[in-house]
Structures are given as C-alpha cells and as structure tokens.
Amino acid sequence: xxxxxxxxxxxxxxxxxxxxxxxxxxxxxxxxxxxxxxxxxxxxxxxxxxxxxxxxxxxxxxxxxxxxxxxxxxxxxxxxxxxxxxxxxxxxxxxxxxxxxxxxxxxxxxxxxxxxxxxxxxxxxxxxxxxxxxxxxxxxxxxxxxxxxxxxxxxxxxxxxxxxxxxxxxxxxxxxxxxxxxxxxxxxxxxxxxxxxxxxxxxxxxxxxxxxxxxxxxxxxxxxxxxxxxxxxxxxxxxxxxxxxxxxxxxxxxxxxxxxxxxxxxxxxxxxxxxxxxxxxxxxxxxxxxxxxxxxxxxxxxxxxxxxxxxxxxxxxxxxxxxxxxxxxxxxxxxxxxxxxxxxxxxxxxxxxxxxxxxxxxxxxxxxxxxxxxxxxxxxxxxxxxxxxxxxxxxxxxxxxxxxxxxxxxxxxx
Length: 414
Ligand SMILES: Cc1ncc(COP(=O)(O)O)c(C=O)c1O
Description:
Number of domains: 2
Radius of gyration: 22 Å
InterPro entries: Aminotransferase_I/II_large (IPR004839), NHTrfase_class1_PyrdxlP-BS (IPR004838), PyrdxlP-dep_Trfase (IPR015424), PyrdxlP-dep_Trfase_major (IPR015421), PyrdxlP-dep_Trfase_small (IPR015422), TyrNic_aminoTrfase (IPR005958)
Bound molecules: pyridoxal-5'-phosphate
Protein name: Transaminase
Distance between the termini: 57 Å
Low-confidence stretches: none
Domain Aminotransferase class I/classII large: 34-397
Pfam families: Aminotran_1_2
Cofactor: pyridoxal 5'-phosphate
Number of strands: 14
C-alpha cells in the first residue's frame, strides 16, 4: 500500500505558472493606484504591441470556413502541415528535411512531453540546463526519468558548461537538452559552440534535444543557427512552435522534428515508438494545422523585423535601467528570446531573505510581477520577461529601483 501511495505523489517541481499565480494573488499596493505590471510570463500577446499579422489570422479563418478541416487529422499531423514545417526548417539547414521527419504537436510543450516519454526507460537520465525551463523537470518527474542539471556560464554568454556535461553523463544518459535562443537567459549560441555541443554528445553517445521555440527571435550580433546543422555529428530532435515567432501561443501549434542523417533513431526503434505515441496525443485543431502552409509562405519579413526591433528596444531599456540599481547586475545582455537573468546582491539589502521573499514583497508593495530565479533553477537571481510595452518596462523598472532603494542597507539612499 505504502509503495502504491508513493507512486502517485505529485511531483514537487516548481512551475512558472504556479509561482506567478501566487505572486499575482499577492499584489495589493494599497496606498497608490499603481496598476499591476507583469514581467513574469512569456506571453507577449497580453501587450497590444505584440499582435500577430492579419494574413496569419486570415489563413486560419479561411481554413475554418472551408469546411474541409472539421474532422480528425492524422495523429502525426496533416501531410501539408508536415511538409510546410519541413520546408520552413530546411531553409536554414545543410540537408533537406522530409515531411516524414516532422511530427505536429500541441505547442512545443507537447513536443517536450512526447520526446521525454519516448526516451524514458528504467534508470535513464537526461541532462538539462541550469537555469532552464522547468517543464523539462516536471515532465521527467511524471515519467520517472532522472534529470541531471548542467551549468550554463553567465560570464560566457550562458554557454553550456561542457565540462559539467561530461562529468554528469554516464551510460544511461539518453539526451542533452539545449535551449537556443535561451529561456531564461536570452543566450544565442554561436555556430562554433553548437558544434562543440554536438561533438560532446557524440563522445557521450547521446542525442541532442534542441528546444528552438524562440528560433529566429534574435536581435544582437549573433545569428540564429539551428542545432540540426550539426546532425551529422550527433542526432538532433528539434522542438518548436508558432507560439513565439508568430505571436500566437494560444493556437498550440508545435512540432517535433528528427534530424538524423546517420539513421541512429531507426536503430533505437525511436521512430516506431514515436508514431505509436502520437496516437495517444490530441494534436492541435485540424483547421489550425491546415492554415500553416499559408502562414509560413505569406508572412512578411517586416512583421518579424518589427517584433525583433521591439524586443531589442525593451531589452535595451531593461539593461540601462538595471545599471541604475546597485544591488542588481546583469551579467549578459540577451541577444535573443524574451527573458533576462539578473543577479541580486542580498548583502546590500536589509529585511529580504532571498529571491522568493524579494519577488513577493515587490508584488505586494509595487504591483510588479517578476519571477524568482529559483523557479528556473537559480536561487537569488531574478528573471524578467521584457516582451512588454516599452512604457510598462520603464514603469516596472522604476518601481523596482525605488523598491531596492527602500530596502538598501547602504547609507545615503542606494
Ligand atoms: C524554452 C521553452 N520551451 C517550450 C515552451 C513551450 O512552448 P509552447 O507555448 O509552444 O508550448 C516555452 C514557453 O514559454 C519555453 O520558454
């Protein structure tokens, strides 16, 4: 009986959504009429400046109105959708993907869930970045897959600490997860670094899971290079979605793509298991899938440029404002994605014990929501999502500054 009870325990993994809802419930700055500003969650669509384009919307409306897509789609995805994603990703790859390499999922989240479920076997482990995206830990906990955290190096643009990867891996390591462009750090890895990751995976006889949900959302000097560029060195499972680049996270259109020129997945019977597993998954709505070819073919570069310019602008504001706050430092200015990690020097603050205490007091006193670093694996850091209107970012950081000044234990203000 005892054992059975244990198996059914809920994983204790902290989730971003869980902690943010507690913080929101804690907002109550009574003496002012400060509106709540959330720089907590990576859903830019709450701000009107991050709207998808009309042609993307029309593609969905047309697919819906056609009455051709009211039925079930094949569980691996509609053929035209798989083909469109294969072509879209192949634009940046040395080898053309086949539509058969593409599996359509309900957002990138379901692609993560499917991948980890298929890789899980008794005793297996995966290596995930710290800081990272907690859904990997949560999903692994449900699948009894052991998670080992390797470090990212803030002073080296949050690159993968390959020494820590090598030290953690053993014969039961089934995959190394990388997130590029990165959440929560905003890293964009160079082609050289990705090649080093592939070489390390090869040495460890592991595969690479490349979470590229922020693919192409880059605004610094490093271009986005897909991990699958190096699939001939080590096999790659690329996970992505329309959510971030097309600004439609609620449409739940994602993908899982196999890049495996050496046929390693076939030997592992991975493809067989994957196809079977898809029969369990309810993917995205058929009419959303049907709209994908038009969405991909007809979306203007100007739309993507606008988003990236906006993100560049708000990250600039964020980093400039942080420089005015003595107890907070930003070791790396993001070149991609929508989030930045900031380090807090608690020795400069009084009456705040740690990052959780910091974020709860900030929510209560300033109506500003930001994520405690512990939620992404780094205690005493903060994660700010800068995909917000510039005026909101300015206002939130001004409030953060006066909050830090109030709690400063250094004489004369800050
Ligand atoms: C790194 C990372 N992977 C996956 C996801 C999930 O993406 P989706 O909304 O498409 O499920 C997110 C969402 O924020 C993310 O940040």
